[in-house]
Task: structure prediction
Amino acid sequence: PTESDPRFHQQMVYAVTMKVLENFDTALGRKLYFRYKKPLRVFPHAFQGANAFYEPDSKLRALLFGYFRADGRDPGPNLPGQTVFTCLSHDIIAHEMTHAIVDRLRHYFLEPTNRDVAAFHEGFSDIVAIFQHFSFPAILRDHIQETRGDLRSPNNLINLASEFGYATGQGEALRSALDNKEDKPPDQKLYKTVHEAHDRGSILVAAVFDAFFRTYQQRIKDLIRIATGGTGQLPDGDLLPDLVNRIAAEASRTAQSTLNMCIRAFEYLPPIDVTFGDYLRALVTADFELSPSDEVGQRAAMIESFRARGVYPESVTSLAEDSLLWESYEPGELPRFPLYSQKAYILREILKNAYAFSQSPGTERAPFDEQAVKEAFQTRGSSSLSEGGDYDSDLSGGIIAVMRQYAIQNAIKLHLDPNRRIDRSRRMSSAREACPCVVGPPSSQPLTAMCVI
Result:
């Protein structure tokens, strides 16, 4: 493999995107297909510019990767002016592929109806990209030897898009899984004050990684105790290879279980207007359904990590695990979805056409029985959709009213706030609004681009 061979660029993109897809298939327990089974297109050399993004438009639906010249003054480990291909970055590919999958699973997460929605898109994509680092054993062992098992110390294993960050003159990786590098308590004010999607998403990344690190420490505690004779202090010098291998195995296992937990949580997320608090409840519920005992305290670590950053779910009585679990319901316990409203609408249209046909010149059909039509609507349960049972009233407005009433009843049954409003006015209108970190001239980006790395 060599970065000078365009064929390797194609292989790299394909390998990483399929690895991401494999992780989702494994965690969700089913094959994931894109809408209408249309393929997701991938363009390794889509444009010239320091950027990469997922284009959700149905006519294209593609991952587009740019290429650019490294900064001439501070290129980091790159040559000044070297051509840098974003399609050769594992992190960038995994990040953008995750955006595409999130769009497949929750299409309305493209609408930033609250401050957390776009941030969730960005943060979750970073989570997948970073935790996939732990699937490479040789790299993992090197970093464990380098950090002496302390994965919280700054290192490339928990950094995102290092080459991109240095090549653009940033002087460091694009982002990190750490929210502070000085071993200070997390700042709870950030969740209330940070609005930019990538920065706010970093709060989510840091919370999940903090929970991972706590679980990882718990799992290697016995190994450290044995290796140090009970002191907990590792001797100076290189760690023994056997110890490194065992610690690496635990780190990889913990990272994979955390990633699976994060992905499975999608099964418990609302279809729109997600918040970080919703995601915490989904994480706890998803893991509880799989492993009720939580022997290593993974759920407890996740709850504490979110609490430390001021992220609290709505409509819960406490942060106890049983309070955070989404309640399960048997069929028939929740309000029935008003399917009849759609049937009534179709029936109305059929009857209107029948009436028009019966009144047309030269028609030798029986007269249109208006009373029979009204009775038909009442039989179908549609009389509740229009005042006085008038079949010719604005039925579509009635359907909206019925759907609203259903949503309110459902929210009350699920102990949610039925008065929580969704702000549809904040819908993204352009790439510049949705992608505040676009680098390069505006002409290099389609206006429908959803996001950048």
